[in-house]
Amino acid sequence: MKKNLLKVLSLLMLGLVILAACTPAAPAEAPAEEEAMEEEAPAEEEVMEEKIAVGIVLPTKDEPRWIQDEARFTEALEAEGYDVEILFSQGDSAVELTNVQSLISKGVEVIIICPHDGTAAAAAVNQAADAGVKVISYDRLIRETDKVDYYVTFDSIAVGAQQAQYLVDNATGTGNPLYLYAGAASDNNAFIFFRGAWSVLQPKIADGTFYIVNSSEAVALQDKAELTRDEEANIIGQITTEWNFDVAKTLAESNLTAATAADKGEVFLLAPNDGTARAIADAFAADPEVTQYWVSGQDAEKASVQYIIDGKQSMTVWKDVRTLVADAINAAVTLLEGGAPEASGAYNNGAADIPAIQSAVVTVDKDNVKETLIDGGYYEAGDFTGLE
Ligand code: BGC
Hints:
Layout: H1 2-21, H2 33-39, H3 44-50, E1 54-58, H4 64-78, E2 86-88, H5 93-105, E3 110-113, H6 121-130, E4 134-138, E5 150-154, H7 156-170, E6 176-180, H8 188-206, E7 210-212, H9 216-220, H10 229-239, H11 245-258, E8 265-270, H12 274-285, E9 290-295, H13 302-309, E10 315-318, H14 321-336, E11 345-348, E12 353-359, E13 362-365, H15 369-374
Parallel strand pairs: 1-2, 1-3, 3-4, 4-5, 5-12, 6-7, 6-8, 8-9
Antiparallel strand pairs: 10-13, 11-12
The structure holds beta-D-glucopyranose.
Beta-D-glucopyranose is lined by residues 63, 65, 139-140, 183, 187, 189, 243, 273, 298-299.
């Protein structure tokens, strides 16, 4: 397994070096060539002849989550002594398409892509497939095309379920105000997170533990344990943050303006990820009628880990990006070798069942933050203040 990973890394890095140079580099110019040669089985000429290359496309640099992924890809690949080039789409499907086209023109054989808009990305994927390029959907599912070869992701149902469970575990009695927030409707994950959360919250709304403050669509559907995608879309349409901190803050503020004093006091906030959690938490913290809030999150972004230590965010769902990166690299090499990456299941993307592997996620709060993220070596203690 380790040998295979080293081989993969070597192949990938060689490909990325080729990409960075835009033209195939002479073998002698490839950095750390000897190191790579020691580790890998195929002869160098064989690698060059096969023009093995992989491109990575991530959605935006504006969210720490994707900077984390960039860093973890770089870390995994540079561990072997190479540079790595990763393209960002800056929240724009047109840029994403250009990125994919540019990678295709450079002769890549596999593209690892996390789409900005899961459905819009189908056009880029179809072009890649037409050019004989394999596509791995990374974290977010690319929809409405059967040309996605593989999907690496986390257990996104569990993400939403853990967020909701945290709110449930901290609620006492009945009649607790619940504010719902969701991700961008263009991201399939936003639906899955919400579905996971709804599966836990709906029975607790039905039994009176919570009542929904900020979505008439959710209130209209609150007796339904399972929602259709269209019903989920109707709710998400009212509570979307668009994965944007400013949108999240403005929405939370307008929800607070519309809320009565009775809807405040101790409140429960389903926030879909860390960036939006911080924005929503700040808005609720600034309202004098809110005496206490519980807010969920996701991604274990450093800023949110600090918020958790400081008691400003209640929890996050940690998704170990190192695992996702390793899964993506392993899948890329298997595809490059003409094989089918091992799948633990499949996700239907509207056009086909896409073979997938998904990783577990972990709830982190003040009680286990040090043990999980610092002692576990994911982050360094020096990155934070006030750690016990
Ligand atoms: C990812 C989350 C991320 C969100 C916003 C989702 O698809 O799974 O980790 O916080 O997008 O970028």
